[in-house]
Amino acid sequence: MNEDKLRIIKVKESILEDNDADADKLRDELRNEKTFYLNVMSSPGSGKTSSILQIIKRLKDEMRIGVLEADIDGDCDTRTMLDAGVASVQIHTGGMCHLDADMSRQSLREIGSSDLDLVILENVGNLVCPAEFDTGAVKDLVILSVPEGDDKPLKYPLMFEKADVVLVNKIDALEVFDFDMDRFTEYVRMRNPNADIFPVSAETGEGFDAVAAWIRDAAREFLGGAE
User: What's the pLDDT tens digit per position in 40-70?
Assistant: First the structure.
């Protein structure tokens, strides 16, 4: 083939650029609605659902809250939320391991975000794909559990580079696992010097008062721009 006629199409780059623009538009829409949208990411089994329930427990009396549950398949987390009395919508991604801005918009419309103060997205469980796509969320919260090890910011840099806040869950198991909190903090700071870090236990509730306060402040700051 003549190299002068060779055409290279950077599909992924184009898709990401289009999605980033749409995500910015979605954030403007949410600000006008006065809705704060929080994207929660982690690997499977880190405690996303139980952590979200701890957050809701602390904010439900002051905010109208809904949860979007994204999974490749299954609806067990949505059932958990509904059983707890939390408005929730299941999102099946059709085999994709992430959500993008348009998928968020469709799901927010389904749950009725204009009638909610806080919508929490429990993203698909893994430490790679969800970090690549801007969901249109106002803030990104990443959960890492103690059994996963303190080296994950070195192995999955983009996830921690994107994080606005990092929860270290299952601190009640620190004595059982070789997890060094200082070392983990150092690794996170290598990737992202601005991320806030909260040690928590979704089992006991320890640390979640501070997390709820962080969300409360972040929502107030975001919605302060609403007319």
Answer: 999 999 999 999 999 999 999 999 999 999 8
Residue 18, classed as helix, strand or coil, is: helix
| Pairwise CA distance, residues 16 & 18, whole Å | 5
Please give the pLDDT value at position 14.
58
Q: What is the 3-state secondary structure (H, E, C) of 114-163?
A: HHCCEEEEECCCCCCHHHHCCCCCCEEEEEEEHHHCCCHHHHCHHHHHHC
Distance CA 106, CA 129 (A): 20
| Tokens read off for 145 | 């559990």
Q: Which position has the token pair 């996170």? A: 188
CB 125 within 8 A of CB 48: yes
What is the C-alpha separation between 84 and 55, in angstroms, rounded?
A: 13
Contact 176, 145 (CB under 8 A): no
- DSSP lists the bridge partners of residue 220 as none
CATH number of 13-220: 3.40.50.300
Q: What is the pLDDT of residue 123?
A: 95
Domain locations in the chain as residue ranges: 13-220
